[in-house]
Amino acid sequence: MTETAAPPASARPIRTFHPRRGRMSARHADAHAELWPRYGLTVVDGDRTPLDLPELFGRDAPTILEIGFGMGDATARMAADDPERNYLGIEVHTPGIGNLLALVGDLGLVNVRVAQGDAMQLVHRLAPGALNAVHVYFPDPWPKARHHKRRLIQPANVALLRERLHPGGVLHCATDWPEYAEAMAETLEADPGLRRLPATPHNRPETKFERRGAAAGRPITDLRFARI
């Protein structure tokens, strides 16, 4: 039998996140054990099996993908206030996953699904035009120049996210790092399939990372672009 060589390290995808496997509290662990089988989705690297969103949610409804939901408080609030749409959140931080599942149980939310793994691996499994919106709130800014290649908002990632939006669907990014905000804006404006939306008020809930940035005196920047 001929042994197949493993792909070189340079061929592996660049991670846009730190693996975070923190310890769950008893409450979070209980929620995970009870609710993960119904509401959870494990994202496996290299899996390109198409993901059927109506099957995943048990209904056909406009779907929002939230990349990196942190502890999930904002996600749960948005989903509770917006029951007509589905919310698919993805995170790698296990306590955050446990907390969102606990909130799903406490609030009786049926329009939330919780994924664990690499967000861009998940995006590859979605059909073009499948999403109503994509939320990227306070992603890791990777502030050191040598780490900028790890930032989520890169031209290739933006193109893939845009393809998964239906026409008129919105890619909404937020950050508290001014330099990253500038880089985000340049990347989003350079995508030929996106148009910038006016800076009008919106109802995005405040996140833990946003409060932390504001407390440190960093300005909050929201960028909203629609698929043409």
TrEMBL record:
Gene3D superfamilies the UniProt entry points to: Vaccinia Virus protein VP39
Top EC class per UniProt?
A: transferase
**What family is this protein classified in?**
Belongs to the class I-like SAM-binding methyltransferase superfamily. TrmB family.
Query: Which residues does the annotated region (Disordered) include?
Result: 194-214
Q: Which PANTHER family match?
A: 3-DEOXY-D-MANNO-OCTULOSONIC-ACID TRANSFERASE/TRNA GUANINE-N 7 - -METHYLTRANSFERASE, PENTACOTRIPEPTIDE-REPEAT REGION OF PRORP DOMAIN-CONTAINING PROTEIN
Q: Spans of biased composition, class Basic and acidic residues? A: 203-213
Q: What GO MF terms are annotated?
A: tRNA (guanine(46)-N7)-methyltransferase activity
State where S-adenosyl-L-methionine binds.
E66, E91, D118, D140
Species assigned in the record:
Actinoplanes regularis
SUPFAM superfamilies membership: S-adenosyl-L-methionine-dependent methyltransferases (SSF53335)
Catalyses: guanosine(46) in tRNA + S-adenosyl-L-methionine = N(7)-methylguanosine(46) in tRNA + S-adenosyl-L-homocysteine
Biological role? Catalyzes the formation of N(7)-methylguanine at position 46 (m7G46) in tRNA.
Alphabetized HAMAP family for the sequence = tRNA_methyltr_TrmB
Question: Residues that bind substrate, according to the entry?
Answer: K144, D176, T207, K208, F209, E210
Query: What name does this protein carry?
Result: tRNA (guanine-N(7)-)-methyltransferase
EC number(s) in its UniProt entry? 2.1.1.33
